[in-house]
Amino acid sequence: MSATSEILSMEELTQKFKNEWVVVEVIEDEFGEPKKVRVIAHSKNRDKIYRKQKKVEGDIAIFYTGEIPEKDYAVVFNE
């Protein structure tokens, strides 16, 4: 779980951190939707990201960059 000073588009973010949880600082948005972000932390473990998010102030967002299951599917995450 590490930060980067690199500014990424949302497309670059999802490619670079595929199937990970990320907490980002929003650098640029359009109508409230993030367009450019700086990664504060990333991890495959959602709980680590939620703990990190509690320590960060500012205009931030949390994303999961993987595929979201379809409706009526049950998902189990195992570490």
Q: Which properties best describe this structure?
A:
globular; 79 residues; 2 helices; 20% helix; alpha+beta; four-stranded antiparallel sheet
Fold and architecture overview:
The protein is of the alpha+beta class and about 80 residues long. It has one domain (about 5-65). The chain has two helices and four strands. The chain has helices at about 10-15, 45-55; strands at about 5-10, 20-30, 35-45, 60-65. A hairpin with a 2-residue loop joins strand 2 (about 20-30) and strand 3. The mean pLDDT is about 85.
Summarize the structure.
With 79 residues, the protein is α+β, with helices and mostly antiparallel strands. The chain has one domain (7-64). The chain is built from two helices and four strands, in the order βαββαβ.
The description of the largest β-sheet is: 4 strands, antiparallel
Shape: globular
Report the mean per-residue pLDDT as an integer: 85
Unreliable segments of 5+ consecutive residues: none
Helix content: 10-25%
Contiguous helical run count: 2
Strand content of the residues, in percent?
Answer: 35-45%
Q: What integer value in Å does the Rg equal?
A: 13 Å
Query: N-to-C SSE series?
Result: EHEEHE
Count of β-strands: 4
Q: Give the strand order of the largest sheet, numbering strands 1, 2, ... along the chain.
A: 1-3-2-4
Count of distinct structural domains: 1
N-to-C span: 16 Å
Structural class: alpha+beta
